[in-house]
Amino acid sequence: MAEDLVLESCDLECESNHQSHMTAEMGSQQLVVRRGQSFTITLLFAGRGYEEGVDTLALNVETGPCPIETSGTKSRFPVSEALDPSAWSAVVDRQDGPSLSLLIYSPPDARIGRYALTLEASMGYQGTSFRLGGFILLFNPWCADDSVFLEFEDQRKEYVLAQQGLIFQGSLKYIVPTAWNFGQFEADMVDICLQLLDTNPKFHRDQNRDCSRRNNPVYIGRVVSAMVNCNDDQGVLAGRWDNKYEDGVSPMSWLGSVDILRRWRKYGCQPVRYGQCWVFAAVACTVLRCLGIPTRVVTNYNSAHDTNSNLVIDRYLDEMGNLQASKDMIWNFHCWVESWMTRPDLTAGCDGWQALDPTPQEKSEGAYCCGPAPVTAIKEGELAMKYDSRFVFAEVNADVVYWLLKKDGSQKKTIHSSLVGKKISTKSVGTDTREDITHNYKYPEGSDQEREVFAKAELQKSSLTEEEQGLSLKIKVSEGMNNGCDFDVYAVISNNTATERQCRLLFCARTASYSGALGPECGKKDLLNVTLLPHAEKSVPLRILYENYGSCLTPDNMIKLIALLIEYQSQEAVLGVRDIYVKNPDIKIRILGEPRQQRKLVAELTLTNPLSVALQGCVFTAEGAGLTEGQRTQELADAVEPGQEAKVRVDLAPQQSGLRKLVVNFESDKLKGVKGFRNVIVAPLPK
Predict the structure, then answer these.
(1) Is 357 an active-site residue?
(2) Is 334 a catalytic residue?
(3) pTM of the shown model
(4) Can you list the domains of the chain with their CATH numbers?
């Protein structure tokens, strides 16, 4: 009688499996594969080898703390003659004496997560079980039957594999690209992302139900959206918008997601302080890409936050042009993410990009999360579509009404030029340019399709434009609105009638945060007697002095300009509102040496002080996936005088070849959150 099979070792073939499953940059410490695609393991038996017809082999895979076959978290399957494309299955790939290689296939709807793999070997009635090890299973955008399948390879490279990208900030008229290190394949990131899933309240309430739903990217998207903020769980980030960040890190100082996620785990899943919308979105992008869901960060300019779901943003100002605080706000910009997936839970036409917003704003089904909302449903005004389509629709379409509060208690609606949902932006595929995706969210202004959408959404879209009025007002700016400089802005007023008009012009500048909160006044002009000749135009300048804005400019570098024109005879009021971005100095990045894999490299970082005062406490921080191991920080011992250069050198250690991004942040007492980046092409090791 033949002796029993005895397993000596199991090789999970990490290196070759990672190459074929697009997970090579996750390292070789543990096996990480994608569902709907086979992977190879090699078994080495002691003594005799496997004999077909004599030995029976079966495999067990289990995930979660309470694996159950009916929940899809456990499966037992024999080594058979052919792979089953709809179920866990295995076949013999090759045999060489006591060495046996198996192909193991996971179905395209398998639950993602950490799996335990065991082998059952039997001969006749006797059987032995061997623990082979563990592996991590991810979504698979390369598999046509996976619900996150993305057809084009260049898009998969950008939205799944790219570990760095751009997030667009600034203002509608001055869009600023900021580099971000997503780093989803950096050491320990996949472990942290799986820990995030296991920390979510739904898992603690019902572990079996939560793990059984982890085959669905819609479910995973909602969990990640809720867990990136900490408002009602042990989420990753605490949000703060009041410029008081002394007990944490300013949202403007972060360079990437890796440091944030590592801090969250290191300190026992306590929230990391602090985040704002682009930080929440970027961390969500890292987690979702890591799990295999194609994801991108998008920025919406003039983004509405509608708190009462009436799709109207009411703003109030007094007769001196001062905006009043209100719950409804217009953010200079707001960031969320889009993830690519099918929506079998909805009607046809809802597949594709889904908006997910992890910034805590309003509750959705009792938790601070938002989405996934089908972008196509938002465009078509289908506001009942799950999840939170109405809220996202308002962000890009809400009507803005400014009310002038009169001293006698009456209110007067003003004519204004605020338009919500402009220049919705994301990084272009394969290049560092901006792609405008506004057309994905809305039809062109004034088109027949736009009117049909608003009728479907039961809204009235105002057709009143300032050009149709007797008086019009626009705010224009000058070149060179650089931090540390004085500059001019202009209220350009026009009389489009055949009669002379006597008016009062209030023109005010106040520092502001990107979320719309106003700071101190930094410039004002009140002209009581402005005469406008028939069909004439007049330009009124307002000088903005650094000595007035420098001490109260927030790290957002925003100034809100408000111009109010009141015609004495008719009391007609015309309003102009514009947000301007005060530009920080550039960080110059020089790469010293030839970038080559596993060869030391040096980056020289330089910033010239543009202010009229010295900079104290100057610190450069640099990081880049595949370029640095963690962050590189260099402090300057001395103050940097006006016009002088702050200059440091940081060591790089390129571990991966290909296109990389070095992302740099500069902090000081007077200049904060200054960003720079440089692309670095690293040559591979010679073969």
Answers:
(1) yes
(2) yes
(3) 0.95
(4) 6-138 (2.60.40.10), 153-456 (3.90.260.10), 466-581 (2.60.40.10), 588-682 (2.60.40.10)
